[in-house]
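Just scan my protein:

——
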Amino acid sequence: MKNRIGILGGTFNPIHRGHLTLALSAYEQYNLDVVWIMVSPAPPHKAASDILNINRRIDMIKLAICDYRDKLEFSDYELKRDGYVYTAETLTLLKNEYPDDEFYFIMGGDSLRDIEKWYMPQIIMEKAVILAAVRNDMDECAVIKHASYLKSKFGADIRLLKTEGIPISSTAIRNNIKNNFSVRDMLPLKVEEYIKYNRLYV
């Protein structure tokens, strides 16, 4: 039986409401069986020194998704490999292990613009359906135009994912915490409590 598996990858430093909105929107709009929240150890484009301890990030992910166990699952798939972990390699391994399943890689519409700068972008678009999130504060026509270009060049299957405009970033959350500003509307309550209790990002 073919499973339709969504993948939302990231550093999740920390995971926030925007991430959950993306994952749940993909689950509902594309009738997925599950969305894997796949944490990255140390992405090539980010300085490792800026990233919180992996165990802390895992704890926060599990707290964030505990109320959505029938839809969202934590995945440590990328933690099982050494060195830099690239999306193209992850998707290649997954397709080899689960050849009958269909993977849906979830990304922001802004990230779609830069996908050709990623490692082996043609592999990413070959191994997975790309779900490009379009917030209501984005230029949807520009995303559609770029998706058409990528479809033509790579034969990619790119579909739009409609989401509410949630202008949240992990960087903004860390800065707010450091400056003692509220993050109440940015984080799931259990994650906010975990951060406060453990005095993270201060």
About this structure: The first strand starts at residue 4 and ends at 10. Helices lie at 17-29, 54-65, 87-97, 109-113, 121-127, 140-154, 170-178, 189-198. The longest helix spans residues 140-154.
